[in-house]
Amino acid sequence: MAxxxxxxxxxxxxxxxxxxxxxxxxxxxDVDAEMARSLADRxxxxxxxxxxxxxxxxxxxxxxxxxxxxxxxxxxxYRNADGSVAEMCGNGTRVFAAYLxxxxxxxxDEFEIATRGGIKGIRIEGEMIATNMGRWRFLDPDRAAAxxxxxLVHVDGGDEPWSALSVDLGNPHTVVALPETVVLADVxxxxxxxxxxxxxxxxxxxxxxxxxxxxxxxxxHERGVGETRSCGTGVCAAxxxxxxxxxxxxxxxxWTVDVPGGRLRxxxxxxxxxxxxxxxALIADGTVDLSAL
Length: 293
Ligand SMILES: N[C@@H](CCC[C@H](N)C(=O)O)C(=O)O
Hints:
- By secondary structure, the chain is of the alpha+beta class.
- About 15% of the residues lie in helices and about 40% in strands.
- Strands 5, 6, 7, 8, 9, 10, 11, 12, 13, 14, 15, 16, 17 and 18 form a 14-stranded mixed beta sheet that branches. It has a five-stranded mixed beta sheet with strand order 4-3-2-1-19, with helices on both faces.
- Strand 9 (about 150-155) and strand 10 form a beta hairpin.
- The longest helix has 14 residues, at about 230-245.
- Ligand LBFN2T5F binds near residues 171, 223 and 231.
- Its EC number is 5.1.1.7.
- Keywords: Amino-acid biosynthesis, Cytoplasm, Isomerase, Lysine biosynthesis.
- Catalyzes the stereoinversion of LL-2,6-diaminopimelate (L,L-DAP) to meso-diaminopimelate (meso-DAP), a precursor of L-lysine and an essential component of the bacterial peptidoglycan.
- It is found in: Cytoplasm.
């Protein structure tokens, strides 16, 4: 670390959901919305779907995060590419865990990390990194039970809105069961789909196609980013919604979810919790001149 303008960074991805990790082990850096936007910019910055500051949990500004410090010494301070703060990022947790291990900040195969969405358990399984994402819920369980759906999603160029189900994974998701007549690859996700009722804090939208037994394909439009090649919380939401529509409200087997950037595994855990597992890669290390952003 030369000075306050030259800063180390690492670039990583989980099934091509990519992140700039900014180590701030002494809690000296304020990665605000503007800095996150600049770092994530794919032309004038390093380029990423999200920015992750690696900081001691005890140094977090939010009291609710500092309260996790005893169990989870490292805090994943996450922002989307547009600078907005998100409660959780599933692939981010797995890439963050890979970084903590590589840097020797965590040594065991199992440890816990702090996120704005609470403490998350990490388990390293060879090449796979699994995150216990914690408890999940349908936003409107009564409507889910009655109709299977609670909202409508309309995409650019779409003839009619599609039925969808809202799932909370710490952050908000709206999962669409794609009609048989629609080709997943052909849907235009250039712009954010319109969701009704309008979610007050925005939402991530997942489009799902069933491929086989406990096997789906998914595309996602992420809140604060745009279409990405993977979204870990979205993959969990998609598997949970599809399992529910298939009559298995608490999934009893592993689900395989194919996204444009690869393949992830979703497993139900006791206590209405869900686990996400897949690869995570750290692909480059460098320094960035923060004053030039
Ligand atoms: N890519 C992430 C989700 C990141 C946050 C999301 N865009 C939001 O605003 O909720 C994942 O892997 O879960």
